[in-house]
Sequence to fold (228 residues):
Amino acid sequence: QQQVKQSPQSLIVQKGGISIINCAYENTAFDYFPWYQQFPGKGPALLIAIRPDVSEKKEGRFTISFNKSAKQFSLHIMDSQPGDSATYFCAASIRLDQTGANNLFFGTGTRLTVIP
Amino acid sequence: KAGVTQTPRYLIKTRGQQVTLSCSPISGHRSVSWYQQTPGQGLQFLFEYFSETQRNKGNFPGRFSGRQFSNSRSEMNVSTLELGDSALYLCASSLVSQGTQHFGDGTRLSIL
Fold:
């Protein structure tokens, strides 16, 4: 069972446009929601993250919008550039116990292509 | 500060063999997690080590095992390799705090 559902699977956006990737979850115990960016041949790199007590977080051209009641969160990439072409993964983390152990569940990924 | 280093970058093995992958975490990071990435299943959690102890384990068969050394470096072992084990194996390290994991570039394992 996929703990975090991500859509769309692929996305093509014109340079300068807005890219929007959506994720949804069911487990209300998740308490940390990071987004990762992965280029071919590289490991995922943390892009931006949010905790559920905040509805929006912005870092440069990247914004996370978080809707706790709907159990949804999304990544917005403003002024998309060809260099943003990569696969994006949303994730959700849940603390397991007092030792700090946690499980990080990933969405299935969105392949973004930004056309010049 | 150096990032997470995984070796080797590429491996080719045949069915039935075993393999050991290595991960050096970011200096000061004590938690090391391993993931399997495939086109069909995406990123799946294998296990996590902290202070040389396996603290958390995903839903993988016992053929997948790991360990962590006193310097936080970690190894992952897969025995009796199967064709379906072909994947990119990623290692991630983090501080004690939750959530922020830093990934290496992975080891691409191909099983013939």
